[in-house]
Amino acid sequence: MAENEVRLLPVDEGSWRLDAYRRAGGYETARKVLSSMAPADVIAEVRKAAIRGRGGAGFPAGVKWGFVPQGGAGPRYLCVNADEAEPGTFKDRLVLLRAPHQLIEGMIITAFAVGIRTAFIYVRGEYARVGRRLEEAIAEARAAGYVGPRLFGTDFGLEIVVHHGAGAYICGEETALLESLEGRRGQPRVKPPFPAVVGLFRAPTVINNVETLAAVPQILARGADWFLGRGLPKDGGTRLFCVSGAVRRPGTYELAVGTPLREIIEVHAGGTPEGRSIKAVIPGGLSAPVLTPEEIDIAMDVDSLARAGSMLGSAGVVVIPDGTPMLDVLLATARFYAHESCGKCTPCRIGTAWILKIVSRLRREGGSPADLDLIVELAAGIKGRTLCPLGEGAALPIHALVTKFRGELERAVAR
Amino acid sequence: MSYAPSPAALRKIEETITLYPEKSAALLPVLHVIQDESGFVSPGAESWVAAKLAIRPIRVREVLSFYTMLRRAPAGRSTIQVCHNVSCTLAGAGDILRFIAEKLGIGPGETTADGAVTLVTVECLGNCDHAPCLQVDGVDHGPATRETVVAIIEELKAHGRE
After folding, report:
1. Smallest Cβ distance to A87: which of B19, B27, B123?
2. Is the pTM of this model over 0.80?
């Protein structure tokens, strides 16, 4: 296989089974790592690869693993975040469907590096059928000796449990995920302590996104330098960009970190349909502040989007075409966060509810520019006053929609 | 009010509990098993689960009332979920929802009089490249059109008569 054809995500779904994965060299990297590397060297390699978390926060995975305290006799856990629910994101679904063994191999390597013997995969409730594919793959891996005690003839073993959620966006937040896994409401915990120190069942815990872990085998197989060369110096590798909305070819595109947003939309996703133009683009899932057409000549990496006042987030690109009433987009956004706020922090619980009430009223009976000011004020009241990023995730996109499309919204609400 | 799972469900529940270092962590999966079998989680089932996992009944209620997929009352034999988040809205989810509602003669959150179908709106189903998307009894559909929706409803009706 030519180097430039190496992919994280297989192109066809038929290759998910163990036989196909093994024919392509599957589980050989885990074998090599477990039989010839020291855990600290594995962490160092992944840190050097500068792989930023693919779930949304963009935190370097190798650094996260390094936060787990060394030594100690008690258990440690790995939690795989498969609670993919950021609107506009559908990549982890594809990894689970097409490359479940690659995820499992990544989990084995990660668990070995951090000294973990039990892993839980938290699959969003709505992905029950996707989760069954994963369970089938785990059963195959177990039968072949890749899951269970004493892997590859070493003393190292790993048990994997698939845990199904039940419909709550908040459980993608890492501490809410832990609460949910422990059989409680998915409401975030106060940090610190961070999960790496006090996590699942009060034990040190590593939580990584599906796509992040599925990239680990290629880092160890080909080296951190190779991985870095595929992306940017501080943000290595390829990423799975999900494109939906007004494009000719909606879908998931595996491209180098740093690929320009305009290229993703116009070249890979085929551009807008005949006769349509771009009005706005959500670059990284609904929580990422919207960009105007003038702002889409931007490299799609964590730092570039942050500098532009937005977020790479989950790399879910939503293309909004001309003619779309932005009041409708604002309503769908406000409704989502009001519905998904977990209720723990007052500013988020009350703020998102009031924003939805105002937007609904504006859409129903119109209003005045002062109503738009009030929405901006409420969004500002949420920001920085919540335990978890959901509050910010609501405040920032709502603020961006209202300020960047202020003129249109003023005209739309004037009756 | 009293509740007892079937022998098969009980076996599944007991197996599930062994997967977790603390029994109470099995709460969500156990509620899934009960709902899959009974269609909802009754007050009697709540008490049964609390006793089984050695937790207080209020903790079961807290969890049951938090997660949108868990039900405390029966729903229709089938459920149609219509995504109304941004990508699906852009692709005409509003029209599809109105069309389904008209076909079924009910609004979102309601169940047809014969108990066959419940219609609900949901947030992103992670299937945005197939917008507007639906999930019908756990199976993904999309892009939904008036034609595909008619076919889905016909099939649910035929299935309901069996």
Report:
1. B123
2. yes
